[in-house]
Structures are given as structure tokens and as C-alpha cells.
Amino acid sequence: MSFIPDITAVGSMALDTVTTRFGTHKDCLGGSAVYFSMSASFQAKVGLIGVVGDDFPKEHTELLKAHGIDLEGLEVVPGAKTFRWSGSYLNDVNAADTHCTMLNVFATFEPKIPENYRKAKTLFLANILPSLQMKVMEEMGSSCYKVCDTMNFYINSARDELEKVFEKADVIFMNDGEARMFTDCPNLITAGKKIMERFSPEYLLLKKGEHGALVFGRNGFIKAVPAFPTEKVVDPTGAGDSFAGGVLGFIARNGRLNNDNVTEAVRYGTAMGSFLVTAFSIDAFRDLTLAKIEERVEALRFLSK
Amino acid sequence: MSFIPDITAVGSMALDTVTTRFGTHKDCLGGSAVYFSMSASFQAKVGLIGVVGDDFPKEHTELLKAHGIDLEGLEVVPGAKTFRWSGSYLNDVNAADTHCTMLNVFATFEPKIPENYRKAKTLFLANILPSLQMKVMEEMGSSCYKVCDTMNFYINSARDELEKVFEKADVIFMNDGEARMFTDCPNLITAGKKIMERFSPEYLLLKKGEHGALVFGRNGFIKAVPAFPTEKVVDPTGAGDSFAGGVLGFIARNGRLNNDNVTEAVRYGTAMGSFLVTAFSIDAFRDLTLAKIEERVEALRFLSK
Known about the structure:
2 copies of one chain form a homodimer. By secondary structure, chain A is an alpha/beta fold. Helices cover 36% and strands 23% of the residues of chain A. In chain A, helix 2 links the parallel strand 4 (46-53) and strand 5 (74-77). In chain A, helix 3 (130-140) runs parallel beside helix 5 and helix 9 (262-276) packs across helix 10 (290-303). The first copy, chain A, is globular and about 50 Å long. The first copy, chain A, starts with 6 loop residues before the first strand and ends with a helix. The A-B interface holds A 93, 186-190, 193, 208, 210-212, 214, 222-227, 229-231, 233, 263, 303-305 and B 93, 186-190, 193, 208, 210-212, 214, 222-227, 229-231, 233, 263, 303-305.
């Protein structure tokens, strides 16, 4: 019997060199698909679609497999190099300074969806080119729950395609800066409402980093979920994808989002982000357990009670 | 029978000229004592200690009186001018650009506490010179509940006196920027914990504007209360004092803060701040009712549920 994932995820696979005031880590495991999949793996079976070169260390694929992530959708291109990103967070823990981006094999990425991945109930489109997000969305068919993330880069460079993705999405993730940029609106509440009005997804989840997250639903529905009080922010890279992983993991266990469960889903996302940032790369996920995640979700419930 | 206030409040009384993208309002009613007292007046009897010149319009004192605020502690100095401040919020709705500060009669303010005000259960020290806050605190005696606010200006100019006030205070209000500046610590959670460790008040309430508020208590107790989703921020002047007014109004009705009621108290503060910013000066408080406030507190309860 072939593996049918709960979530089919497509996104970047990277080797990151990251500098924070806690030091520099070279060529460590990164990329939106990695952060998302590792995060979601605690609650869901994930099928990962991505691309790497043959320089991608075997220990990384082993780690992903050890977390139950299916790699049939991971393409390894012989003789090619994996996407590399380097950046630092020395001035502001909320915003990276990019030093260097080498797209390498990611530049010509064409996601191929394994047959059994098409049966997944949920599709997560991490921040890849909107035109590729669109292609995957169409290939997956209309019955799956379509969730997308984006990044500021595409808001400027591929806005038309991005809007088409948003029109098709059931759930949209964005961060505060992206929402402001996309709507040209400094007030976040107005920005969120404008996006809801324009694209009418079921939910828009606005991530605000240390200030938590806002949920926008239809008919003016709004929720605000505070961040977990975290003192030690070692490396924020991938926090947004880890947040999405927590939310979609919750969906895999509890069904689609609705006005009654969306706050709880966002708490799972918040919990995953709060663990992730306490170490470089995905290191904080190595020894994490669902029990520890649920303990933190309980703390988050109490936090604003 | 003489009037005994629930709260004795001391702070500035001002005529403000404020410019936001909604326009300019000249010489409108302002000052920390005014915002605080008006806000608290919906739940508590307030005795106000402040100073104005004889240019202070009678309609302003009438408005305060109409809200049940006792003005026996308001000194009117003949031939002198009221404190004037002018500023704008054109670039950032969270931070004022000060154009001009004319202290006038406020420069030589020496708070005098009417005899019956000394019987108030709660003392609120709005942002006046820390040495004056200290003097009032000592005169009020040790049995009253001592709550203080501050402003960034005094962190730089009167740090030693400010620290003495903090040492005596039961509850400290600060905004996020002030907490970061005071502790030289970019992480707000760490900043809050440092202030708790150093001064050991019962509670530290950290105001984060559009991102809500954090509560720090003893033994690592933390709560996070989101802001009310407000699209129309017309004039943020006095939002912090109005927040304090909501919290202390709650205290007047429900007794001192404790770990079980502090979140609810902060919701009252949040509600008052959210009303205030929708109009210039204290205009949003003119037609406000306790019923409307409680409706908003209920919405805030739901917001993070």
C-alpha cells in the first residue's frame, strides 16, 4: 500500500549560513519546505516536494525521514548544487539582512507531484514562485484544502501571479510587513480586512513575530493570539514556516479550520515557532515531542485567559 | 460629609495642539491627569491633583466635574499660563514628534494633597517629575495602593529618583520603548523580568500599543492581552493614561490586582485606550457609557479565546 500524506508540501530546500549574536552556523539545514515539514511532522504525515543538488548531505534526508516525512517528492539533481542562502540578524531579530542568495538548482525547480501525494487532504504551498504555486494548486485538483504562504520578494516581483494564488487559496499566511506592503496600508487591521475583501479566503493568518498573530475570517471575524514569551531568540529563520507547520498539523488531526477551532490551531503554530527560534536551523525540533508541544499550547491558552 | 475619592491622581494638565493625518486640533484638553481621570471616572470616584493657569477654559473644568471628577486638588495660578504641548503623529501613529513644550505653570508645580484625598485607597502617579511622584507617595502614607506611570524623558533625566519611585510602587506602568530603554534590553520579556527582579512590584504592566499589553507578576507570572482591533486611530495622545484609568477603575470596583483578575483589569485598560484613540483629545469619552465599555471588554475576552 502506498503512502498517502495528510499534507502535501512544496517549498524550498536550502543550506543556510546564518549569523546571529549567538554565533554563525554554516551550511545548516534550511528552506521553507524543511521548516514546515519538520514542524508539521509532530502531528501529521507530510509528503515533501522540493529539489536539492547531490551535495545535499545524507544526514539531512535521514533526519527528515526519521521524522516520518516522505521524500518521494524530493528531486535530487545530479551534478547540481543545492540552494544556498546566507544572512544575519544582528541589528533586528525580526528582520534578516541577506548577504548572499545562490538559487542553484532551485532556479529551475519544476515541482513534480507523486501520484499518491495528489490524494492528500491538504496542500501547503510555501514561499516559492507564485507561478509554481499556481501550477501545483491546479495539478492537485479542487477538492484539497489549499493553504499558501508567500514572501515580500514576490509581492514586488510577481504580484499578478501571487494574486491569482490568493484567489484560489482557502487559507493565506502572511506576516505583518508583507500585509502592509501588499495593501500599502500601515494599519494591520485594515490591511487584513482588505485582503479578506479582495480574495475572500476562509482565513487569513497574519504573523507578527514577538507580538503573536491575528486571525481574519469572513464577516468581520477576528482573533488575536499572543506570542509565547520567549527570552532566548537564537535564530528566527523559518519561524513563519514552523508556525504554518503547527497550524496545518492541527488541521490534519482536527479537520479544516472553523471559527471555533482556529484560535487553538494558531496556538499550535505559535508553539512550534516558539520552540524553533531557541536554536539554529531545525535543531530545536530534534528532541521535541508532541507532549511538550501540547504543554506549551496549554501555557498559551493560560497566557491570555 | 466631605468627598473621599477611590483614587487620588496626580499628573499634568495641558492644552495640546495635535496634528495627525486627520487634521490639527489646537489647544485641546490634554495632560496625563486629565486622560487618566476621565478614563477612570467611568468606574471610580477620582480626586485630581494638578495645576493650570487662569487661561484654562472653564468648559474643561466643567467637563471634568460632569464626569464626577473632584477638583479640590486642582490649583489655578492667577496670571499664569497652563502647560502647553504640541506635536504630530504623521510618520508613525505610535510615536509623537514633539514640536514644542511650554511648561509654563507646570514648571514649578508642587502637588498639594487635600486632606480627604489622603483617605483614597489608591494613588495614581501619572508622568510628572519622579521627585514629585516620590513626595506625593510619602505624603499619602504607606497604606494606600501605589501605582505609577513614567515617560522616557525621566528615564534619561531623573533615573535615580525614578528608581526610588519604582522601589515603593505596588504597580508600575511602562510602555515597551521605555522598558527597553530602562533596561537596555531589546527583548521585552527579559526587560520585564529585569524590572520585576530589580524593584519587585506586585505587577508590571507593559503597554505595547497596537500589539496589546504584557503583565508581569511575581514568581515568573506572565499574561499577554491583545489590543482591540482598531482601524481608525485618529489621535493616540493619552492612550497610555487612559489604559491606566481603565485598570485603576477596575481596581476601584474589584479590589487590588491579583493573578486571577489582572487580565480582566488589563482588558478594561485596553478597552479605554481603544475608545480614546478614535477621536482627538478626550472627545471619545464624552458620550461613552460603562455599558459600552463592558461590551468592549466582553469582545476582548472573546478575541483571544
